[in-house]
Amino acid sequence: MWSWQRNLYALTAAGFLMFTAFGFVFPFLPLFGAYLPFGIKERARSAR
After folding, report:
1. Per residue in 1-48, pLDDT tens?
2. What is d(CA 15, CA 7) in angstroms, rounded to the nearest whole number?
3. Considering the entire predicted model, what is its pTM?
4. Cα 23–chain centre separation
5. Rounded to an integer, what distance in angstroms lies between the CA atom of residue 42 and that of residue 29?
6. Considering Cα of 16, then 19, then 22, then 23, what sign does the dihedral take?
7. Which of 25, 26, 44, 24 is closest to 34 using CA atoms?
8. How far apart are CA 2 and CA 28, in angstroms?
9. Cβ-contact 24, 32 below 8 angstroms
10. With helix as H, strand as E and coil as C, how does 1-48 read?
11. What pLDDT, on a 0 to 100 scale, did the predictor assign at position 15?
C-alpha cells in the first residue's frame, strides 16, 4: 500500500471520529456553559 493511501485512510478515520465526537458533545454544551466564569447565563437571559 502506498503512503498516500495510508494517509487517506487515516484522515478518513480521523474525520469520522472527529464528527462523531462533536455529535456526542454538542448537546451537552449548554450544560457546560453554566460553569463558565464569564457570565454566559446572563447573556442568554438578555438575548431573550
Report:
1. 789 999 999 999 999 999 999 999 888 887 777 776 665 556 556 555
2. 12
3. 0.57
4. 7
5. 16
6. negative
7. 44
8. 40
9. no
10. CCHHHHHHHHHHHHHHHHHHHHHHHHHHHHHHHCCCCCCHHHHHHHHC
11. 97
